[in-house]
Amino acid sequence: MRAFPVIAALLLLASGASAQDLPAGPFTAAQVDAGRTAYIDHCMMCHGARLQGLGEAQPLVGKDFVDLWGHDTAAELYTSVRIEMPQNDPGSLSDDVYLNLVAFLLHANGAKTGTAPLDAKSAIKIETIVTGTASADVAAGLKSAK
After folding, report:
1. Which domains, and CATH codes, for the chain?
2. CA gap 33, 24 in Å, rounded
3. Per-residue pLDDT tens for 73-128?
4. Residue 20's pLDDT band (boundaries 50, 70, 90)?
5. At what angle do helices 29-42 and 95-108 cross, to 10 degrees?
6. Which residue, of 60, 97, 131, 145, has the greatest Cβ tally within 10 A?
7. How far out from the chain centre does Cα 126 lie?
């Protein structure tokens, strides 16, 4: 019966870090709020109310997001979003709006809100701050205020 505690401890170690163990993300609550609004206005029509991706648009939350972006930095995600989105008018939003969108995407994937604002040079690896589990607001589905 002594083996059970050892096996349980090994399973916990093998399961990886929990959300509580992850550091706070490099973004503020104000950026998340502004990013949520920008997402609803500019992204939701293609990526969906739960960021699940509609039609040809890729999912922006969960395992798909972590598999695609986990090894990249927040700066690399920002650059890609700024250059490629929105699909019908790439690069048309302000740098601050793109930063806010990235903050919201990180939040949507389980990253904890921090105290310093996200900037375009953030070298933090995405996989070190996200869990891949949708935040409560995203899991419930975003709603347009319009």
Report:
1. 18-140 (1.10.760.10)
2. 16
3. 999 999 999 999 999 999 999 999 999 999 999 999 999 999 999 999 999 999 99
4. low
5. 100
6. 60
7. 8
Q: Note whether 57 and 46 are within 8 A (CB).
A: yes
Closest CA to 29 of 82, 106, 84, 92: 106
Can you give the chain as a three-state secondary structure string?
Answer: CCHHHHHHHHHHHHCCCCHHHCCECCCCHHHHHHHHHHHHHHCHHHHCCCCCCCCCCCCCCCHHHHHHHCCCEHHHHHHHHHHHCCCCCCCCCCHHHHHHHHHHHHHHCCCECCCCCCCCCCCCEHHHCCCCCCCHHHHHCCCCCC
Contacts of 70 (CB under 8 A, 6+ apart): 125, 126, 127, 130
The C-alpha angle with vertex 13 and arms to 12 and 14, in degrees rounded to 5, equals 90
Nearest to 23 by CA among 106, 105, 111: 111
Q: Would you say 22 and 93 are in contact if contact means Cβ atoms under 8 Å apart?
A: no
